[in-house]
Amino acid sequence: MAWTEILYDVKDHVATVTLNRPDRLNAWTRHMEGELRQAMEQAAADEAVRAIVITGAGRGFCAGADMNLLSGISSGEQQGGGAAGDDARANNGGDGLDANFNRRFSWMLRVPKPVFAAINGPIAGMGVCFSSFCDFRYVAEGAKFTTAFARRGLIAEHGVSWMLPRIVGLTNALDLLMSARTVEARELERLGFARLLPQEGFVDAVRAIARDLTTNASPRSIGVMKRQVYDAMFQNLDEAWEVADREMVASFSSEDFKEGVAHFVEKRAPAFTGR
């Protein structure tokens, strides 16, 4: 596929999606969002892919919504669009538990593979929103973060008011959202939003972490656990327990369970298939 606002490649079972508007610090557009969604769906369906890394081209990760879009909304030329107005269900259908995973970025929680945000540089607004719905976040030394919304006369959009407190805690989330202050990478790590890595070789280091995770642990187990954890946010203990009991029985007949036992007994590296 000919991508125009992202780059996509697969190596060593890791798909890398790169936001590719470096001249605008990868500011968010509706077209970029569509391409990101397509790339993620392609990676999810590809048996050769076990993990997904999202990063930015050039010196930025994502500077938030493109200011041309915001200016259009402010002047009345656009009605929300890529910023807020079209945040309807991301997929048609779905109710009950499934309805929670049909929104603009919440669908990422149902991607059956671990998703890593490799925050290589400045991140703001929309970038904070979608990275909050990644499973893991790593930040390069020197990168800067701001939620931005309150300083533009806006509010916490796209589920970030729900997700951010679950990552950094209620008081820290309120601080980051209400103040919209600029936060350095080291504080992001202290708050628990992202793990800090050196700037040099940053994206390769995140890819290596993703590759190590999905090589030494069963991709099938990872996919099931991911769904368990996010579904459990909307379940009571009894419901989550019932799901775990069913999934444990199902795992006993999987190829990865047989391999998990065999490589441990034989004292060798695992060769998981994800099945």
UniProtKB/TrEMBL annotation:
Coiled-coil positions: none
Pfam families from the UniProt entry: ECH_1
GO-annotated molecular function: enoyl-CoA hydratase activity
Swiss-Prot/TrEMBL keywords: Lyase
Listed EC numbers: 4.2.1.17
NCBIfam families: PRK06210.1
Domain of life: Bacteria
InterPro entries given in the database record: ClpP/crotonase-like_dom_sf, Enoyl-CoA_hydra/iso
SUPFAM superfamilies the UniProt entry points to: ClpP/crotonase
Name under which the protein is recorded: Enoyl-CoA hydratase
CDD domains in alphabetical order: crotonase-like (cd06558)
Leader peptide range in chain numbering: none
